[in-house]
Amino acid sequence: MGNKKIELLSPAGNLEKLKIAFKYGADAVYGGVSHFSLRIRSGKEFSYESFKEGIDYAHSLGKKVYATINGFPFNSQIELLKKHIIKMAELKPDALIVAAPGVVRLCRELAPNIPIHLSTQANVMNYLDAQVYYDMGVRRIIAAREISLKDVKEIKKHLPDMEIEIFVHGSMCFAYSGRCLVSAVQMGRVPNRGSCANDCRFQYTLYAANEDHSTLFRLEEEPGVGTYIFNAKDMNLASHVDEILSSGAVDSIKIEGRTKSPYYAAVTAYAYREAIDDFYAGKFDAEKYQEELATTKNRGFTDAYLIHRPFEKNDTQNHEYALSKGSFEVSGLVTEDEEHFYCKYKTYPNDEIEIFAPLNSEIKEVDNEIGKIYKKDDGKYYVSFKKILTETNKELESVHSGNTNKIKLPGKLPYLTMLRVENMEFEQKESCMSGGCSD
Questions:
Q1: What is the mean pLDDT of residues 107-111?
Q2: Coiled-coil segments, which residues (predicted)?
Q3: Does this model's pTM top 0.85?
């Protein structure tokens, strides 16, 4: 890798999230159109037209977009897949992310000028498999999530020209690199064709059966313990970014989450951008990045398998809940004119609301009849409203999510700035978990 700075790759579930990822620090994003992507729900949010707009926007910033064609097609889909590859190639993405060997070959035939990145679903764990794909024309592998940093280094040693991308943050699958059939068996939704129903996140009741006597016993459990038996915690390797970058073996670090919220896209890009830049500046501070990442909704965090071997781990499963709230709620998103915001939660006059702005933003303090924007001793900027006014100057007592009116800001804030408030439910939950409250 030499002196080349590592790439930060973020998810883009739609055009807005694509723009947010770039505003908050991503070097590249990945996303897709249609059911040939492994995230159908996010794929439906991109049309060919809006995906092209996203690619053009990225290129105007000198950044990149990788198009996902990482599903596993059935025979009946192959002719449609060929048309899709040709159509995607016309949009000029910077790479195609592909999982199946046959689709790799198809992309080489139909889109020979576009680099191919091998999906994590191909489960590359060693340099032998990496060599096979390199010989097929693949120029980057997204390593299996179960790989160790030691093995990443070994692949790089044998194939120095092969780029290596690893996941550092986001949802973890209890199955090996996402190769799961539980959703297909229970719901008829096939995970490896992009329509996973997330059955592993459900709460299950356990039974014991005796086939000789046709008896069935419900296993009683301590309330709240052991019912989420398949539920993996979320990966979070922010504290290990320094080790990853020091290895010299990784070309790109990737954040999972095309179906996650715009706030998640912003915070994860921001935190990992800081981690990367701080490492190169010699001031790496893991606690700072973790504090920011904790504001996102999550299932609890684990550092997964990159640093520790699987049998050494005992903290990868969350048996208590499927998804918790983060420590903050997003209360608003600043509009393109930079003078208004759309309410995403609830806002009342005199509330103190933190401003979470894109990287390197300049914020001016103001105090007028609408409200004030000010900086506190903690170094953060806040906004407080004296009046809540719509774009047409109608005054409201308060504004809540669902209200589609633009709400006036006291002063300009950068486009896609997020306004956020502390989540009191989260604070209470944390207090209770540490023994601070009783039933």
A1: 98
A2: none
A3: yes
